[in-house]
Each structure stands twice: as C-alpha cells, then as structure tokens.
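Board work, copied verbatim: Nicotinamide phosphoribosyltransferase
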Amino acid sequence: MNPLADNNIILDTDSYKSSHFLQYPAGTRKLFSYLESRGGRYPATRFFGLQYILKRYLSVRVTAEMVEEARELITAHGEPFPYDGWMHIVTAHGGKLPLEIRAVPEGMLVPVHNALMTVTNTDPAVPWLPGWFETSLMRVWYTTTVATQSYYLREILKAALEQTSDRAAEELPFKLHDFGSRGVSSRESAGLGGLAHLINFQGSDTLEALRTGRNYYGADIAAFSIPAAEHSTITSWGKAHEVDAYRNMVEKFSKPGSVYAVVSDSYDLKYAINTHWGETLRQQVIDSGGTLVVRPDSGDPASMVRLAVRALAAKFGTTTNSKGFMLLNHVRVLQGDGVDEDSIREILQNLIVDGFSAENVAFGMGGALLQKVDRDTQRFAYKASAALIDGPEGEYFQPIYKDPVTDPGKRSKDGVLDLVREGQRLVTKQYQTFDTEYPDSVMRVVYRDGEVLVDETLDVVRGRA
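↓ predict structure ↓
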C-alpha cells in the first residue's frame, strides 16, 4: 500500500468532520465560525502563530489526487465523504480553498472571552468547509498560549527590573532564555513554541525557532545565545580537575564584553564558587574582561540562587546602583532548573529582600515554557455561530450557539462576530446578518480564497508585543 501524501490537507481534520456535510439543514449556504479564549490561567491572550498555519498548510492547492486519496482512506475508515464538494473546489477554484479568515493582528493582547479569529466559506456549495478546518486552525492555541505565558512572565521580570535596575530596558529581552527544544513533542513544536516565546524575548537555545522565524516571519536572526558548558563538558575532566575545566572556559570564551555560562554544581556548588571561582580563578575572571555566568542546576531553585548570589558577592564584590540595589561585579547567575512562574517570583523576591538587583539573575526555562501548556490553559474554543439558509419561504439568517445547563461557562456566542475598540476596551460585536462592513474593526482579512493577504515580519509582531 502506498503511503499517504504528507501535504494532503484534506486529511488534517477529525474523522467525524467528514460526516458533517450531511448534518446541516437542507439549503445551508454559509456558515460562520469563530475562535476565542473562554478564560483560563491568564486574563488576556497574546495572539500569535496563525500566519504560519496559513502559509505552511492552507496555501496548499487541493488536487484531484488528494481528493481520491482522502475518499479512499476516509470511507474505509467508516465515514462518509463529501466527494462532490471537494472535487468542486478542485475544478471551480483550482484547488484554492474558498474560505475567508479574519483575525486580530498577531502580537496583540486581547482580553479573554473575545473573538480572536473568524472563518466563513466564500462559496455556497461548500458551507461545511469552516468546520472541516477547525482542527488545523484551532492549533493556533499552542503558539498563542506559549506567547501569552511568556508575556506574563515578562511582566513579572519587568516589574522587578524596574524596581531594582538602572538598565531595565536593556536587560529585559534576555532575562528568560528558552531551553525547551528537547522537552517538546516534535521539531515543529520546538519551532512554533520557541518563536512564540521570542515575540516577548530575544534569548533562546532553540535553533528551530530561528529557522521558523526566518522562513515564515521574515526574521533574519530571531534570537541570540552565548557559549555555555554542560555537565559532560565539565565532568569529562574528572572531579580532581574540575578547576581546570572552569579555567578552560575562561581561556576559551572570556574576553572584554563577552558573556559565557558555566554550570557549577557537578560536585559541590558552594565549594566551586568559594574556592574555584572565588579564589583560584578569581583574578583571571576579572582580568579577562568578560562576564562569567554561574549556573546552579540542582536543589531548590530559590535557595540555590540565593546561595550563589551571596557567595559571589562575597568573593567578587558589588556595586550599588542609583536605586540602592547591589549589582555583582564581573559575574552573574543563571537558573535553568525548576524554573516556572512560582520559582521566578520566589527568586526575585529573595533578591529584592537581600538588597540585590534583579539584574544579577537570568532564567532558562525548558519544559514549563513550551510544553506545560494545553488547550485548556486558556480554554480555547472554535465554534459555529451563524448560518445562512435557503428555506421554503426564502433565505434566512440562523444564529448558532450552545448553552449547556450543566456548564454555563460553555455558552457560546451567536451571530456574525467582530472585535472592535471602544475607548480603551476591546469588545466583541455580534451581528445578526452577514451583510456587515465591520465598522471600527481591529480584525483584518488575512486569508481569502487560497491566498494569504497579510504577511508580517517578526519585528512588526514584536512591535505590538
């Protein structure tokens, strides 16, 4: 049996969707669907990632071969298949999808319970098409949720820096580094999640995010990194020569203006700081002109950072900035183990209580940044909300919504939806007609009839963020 084509977008749906063309009222000509965050962990979402989906997947042209392949698989799978409808797309539209997608600008922060994206068919022969692509379009939840979590972490770091640092604006973009590539389920997840983080920050070790940024968002270099040790590069010298491993890092990577990170807990973090770094190599670190970043990587994060900062302060000294907080001389600390919102808050609070600037510490975040999110983190939903139907007495508008008695929070919106700005507020408007020109809308048509109409760079998206 021949393998299925990787680019057959007809198959990128849920099985039961293939039966829906038989379930809508007779005479249905148009369906309208929308995406929203129904609440969740954060009060607003930072929308991101739709442009990738549109360029990577919905720009593919459907062919007769794809239709035949999909019919064979889906019917054998036990579902009916809208063969005539898909062949109509091939013959009447040259394989281009007759859909119109409107969405808020990427990078925009939108309060929950508002429409973020709307989808409708542009050909009355295939009204089931907006529902068919729910599965692929819904995946924008992932990039949006990562971007949202990253944004709120940025706000925590920003507040601490503004309170304790003279260089908050320069420091902030590099305070939360992406360590998450190995902790996600696929290369694509690494690229998408990693790039979502980078609309808020500029530090990353996820190279796949740079590739995705360059290919789909016009970003030449989306992020930056620094030379850094891992346990194998230190312990390969043997415990008796730990200091030689550290000396090698200084000799190879330290020069005026450089920054390099050295994991220092392979054996005894306290001894490494007090003896190896603080005595044996102290003057070499200072004379080299670079900035040594010491990385604890085990134990309770808040306790280990506190230990490291205090010990380094005792050995290398501090300078007090204009806000009255101490800044380590020649050295910094990077915490890359056990980092999440709670540990970041605790570490920053300890620094402030001890009189140290938040500038002294940066964070590396792995699985919690790119993988410890799901569709329910922000309770994403994609629902049909309106239909246009030819009935016995003529064409009529049909609102569509659900309102389960057992869960009022799942009451969906009805009507043709739009997002508008009213003063300082964003408000979802609900129209009971398809004949609207969307006055004062913040949404834009980003896709129509197989063509991507908005193609923005990462810099533009970052400008909104």
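The radius of gyration is 27 Å.
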